[in-house]
């Protein structure tokens, strides 16, 4: 390696003017000296060849030591700048789980376990309690209409795709039926507006109400990472745990907000049936943004929550 190469590396490796001057001075004293020979007058020789070799090796070691120590110092400064000025960039280089430990209170842990147990229950049309839940939903949705048989064309009026609602639950499970019941029990006016498509200019091919509700339940489970065996790993799931600490019905309330938001997005996009998945993605994105807001500690703090009372 030539002396000019070393000088250029030292010069470009420093970004501070004063240190630059110091390094140039070092270079004039040492880097002008050939690394493999003596710059002294040839007429003058050392008393011992071994002493000359030792002096050369010592000077080489000093140059390289200075070079590496400079580079290490600059690398450390560069890393410190990243940590202090853009911690979010560094954070994306690491798995979310390694950035911070999540500690649940006994109440949070209990409520999370109860919720996960609910999610494990599939809808079973042969179970009496599941059949009764379907009848309860009909009675709440259509209080002035007689409850039809469990297999009937009448179920299509609620937005089930076939004559047998049990075939439409799929990945939503029994919790999606519980979500619909909670919606109509706690926000009946909002529920009826969506069921009967009372607001806005509707599409010729509208989304089926009940089946849309099942899909919203499934979307929330994925968004909040509630299907995982351990702690939620998504940021939305972590924020949701804070809501769960304040309200055991946080999931059901968030479902109602999501349903109302879905209908608003449907109207905004002037969507039709084939665009339902696109609308659902927009709902998920909006909920993730709202859950990340610093002042959200309850479901009622979400900006979209007010839509339930319009």
TrEMBL record:
Domain ELMO per the UniProt entry, residue ranges: 129-291
Annotated coiled-coil segments of the chain: none
Pfam families: ELMO_CED12 (PF04727)
Family matches, as InterPro entries: ELMO_dom, ELMO_domain-containing
Protein name: ELMO/CED-12 family protein
Organism: Rhynchospora pubera
